[in-house]
């Protein structure tokens, strides 16, 4: 059963007001002792007489890092926390750490119940430890009144025991993905005159061209491809990645491919919007146009054995994934 400290109501108000609520703490009990550290205080009643307002333990190791507990028996801020025990988890020796170090950890603080032989502990919270913020914890971990009540079992024979458990949040495979939306009203047009159309063999391929920093080209099968072979002209728009070296994973583009009619003011065209990527780098039409239609001289698509092909591309969105180095 969870015990919510008196600070929780104030914490809820702080969150609603947009302020940090580090005083909020939910406590539960368990039988298992903390995995990493135990700290015993003998003759607790003499703490105040000895003038110890703040005590830092020796370093202990958890998750390849050094840590320590900082205990303030009269509260961290005597004006606000004097009725509470303040306790914090802090980074220990950081001399071996690189510049601008950062450690993300989930930690719990423990208090041993000597009557029931179990532990009152804070539910694990995740915090980022930095050089400018090397400690996290609770200014109101537990009230002195509750702690010193003999019936509660946390101080027996004037002794009490605190503990800590720390788990490191490792970045095993971390990346940042960015979806960048584009003004797709701005389109790119390019056309080609394909000579000797009747003499083309299986495939005609355009040169690569750039649209919004991305490489593309057109591949046309004048005699069809796959199931459309011998019956339809097939055509595809191919994507070859970013021209800037940026690791673009996906590009969404609206594309129109058009066979121009050279005798009449009408075109044969098809339009589609698709996502292009390294794994799916081509979209188009297996049956763009019947071969009999394009080759019919009365239709006007082939004049002097030349075909006019046009493509229009509007890049609508770009997804970029930037991998970061693995950190512990």
Please, could you describe this protein's structure?
With 328 residues, the chain is mostly beta strands. The protein has helices at 7-16, 144-148, 291-295, and strands at residues 3-4, 26-30, 37-42, 55-56, 60-62, 65-72, 84-91, 102-113, 118-122, 125-130, 135-143, 159-168, 175-181, 188-194, 204-205, 209-211, 214-221, 232-242, 248-260, 267-277, 282-290, 302-303, 306-323. The two termini are 34 Å apart. The strands form 4 sheets. Strands 1, 2, 3, 8, 9, 10 and 12 form a 7-stranded antiparallel sheet that branches. Strands 13, 14, 19, 20, 22 and 23 form a 6-stranded antiparallel sheet that branches. Strands 4, 5, 6, 7 and 11 form a 5-stranded antiparallel sheet that branches. The longest helix is centred in the first third of the chain and has 10 residues, at 7-16.
The assigned structural class equals mainly beta
Mean pLDDT: 87
Shape: rod-shaped
Order of helices and strands: EHEEEEEEEEEEHEEEEEEEEEEHEE
List keywords for this structure.
single chain, 6% helix, 51% strand, 328 residues, six-stranded antiparallel β-sheet, rod-shaped, seven-stranded antiparallel β-sheet, mainly beta, 3 helices
Summarize the entry for a quick read.
With 328 residues, the chain is mainly beta. The protein has helices spanning 7-16, 144-148, 291-295; strands at residues 3-4, 26-30, 37-42, 55-56, 60-62, 65-72, 84-91, 102-113, 118-122, 125-130, 135-143, 159-168, 175-181, 188-194, 204-205, 209-211, 214-221, 232-242, 248-260, 267-277, 282-290, 302-303, 306-323.
């Amino acid at each position: 059963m969870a015990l919510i400290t008196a600070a929780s109501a104030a914490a809820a108000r702080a969150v609603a007001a947009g302020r940090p609520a580090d005083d909020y703490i939910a406590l539960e009990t368990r039988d298992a002792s903390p995995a990493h550290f135990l700290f015993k205080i003998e003759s607790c009643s003499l703490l105040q007489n000895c003038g110890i307002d703040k005590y830092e333990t020796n370093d202990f190791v958890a998750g390849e890092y050094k840590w320590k507990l900082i205990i303030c028996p009269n509260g961290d801020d005597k004006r606000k926390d004097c009725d509470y025990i303040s306790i914090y988890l802090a980074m220990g020796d950081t001399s071996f750490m690189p510049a601008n170090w950062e450690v993300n950890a989930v930690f719990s603080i423990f208090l041993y119940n000597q009557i029931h032989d179990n532990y009152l502990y804070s539910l694990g919270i995740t915090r980022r430890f930095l050089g400018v913020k090397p400690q996290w914890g609770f200014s109101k971990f537990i009230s002195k009144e509750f702690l010193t009540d003999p019936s509660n079992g946390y101080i027996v024979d004037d002794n009490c025991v605190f503990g800590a458990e720390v788990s490191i949040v490792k970045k095993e495979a971390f990346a940042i993905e960015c979806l960048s939306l584009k003004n797709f009203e701005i389109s790119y047009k390019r056309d080609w005159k394909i000579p000797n159309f009747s003499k083309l063999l299986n495939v005609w391929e355009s040169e690569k061209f750039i649209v919004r920093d991305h490489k593309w080209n057109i591949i046309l099968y004048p005699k069809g491809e796959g199931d459309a072979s011998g019956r339809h002209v097939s055509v595809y728009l191919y994507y070859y990645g970013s021209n800037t070296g940026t690791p673009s994973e996906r590009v969404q583009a609206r594309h129109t491919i058009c066979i121009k009619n050279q005798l009449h003011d009408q075109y044969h065209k098809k339009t589609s919007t698709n996502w292009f990527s390294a794994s799916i780098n081509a979209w188009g039409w297996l049956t763009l146009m019947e071969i009999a239609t394009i080759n019919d001289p009365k239709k006007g698509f082939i004049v002097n054995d030349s075909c006019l092909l046009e493509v229009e591309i509007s890049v609508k969105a770009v997804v970029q994934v930037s991998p970061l180095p693995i950190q512990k």
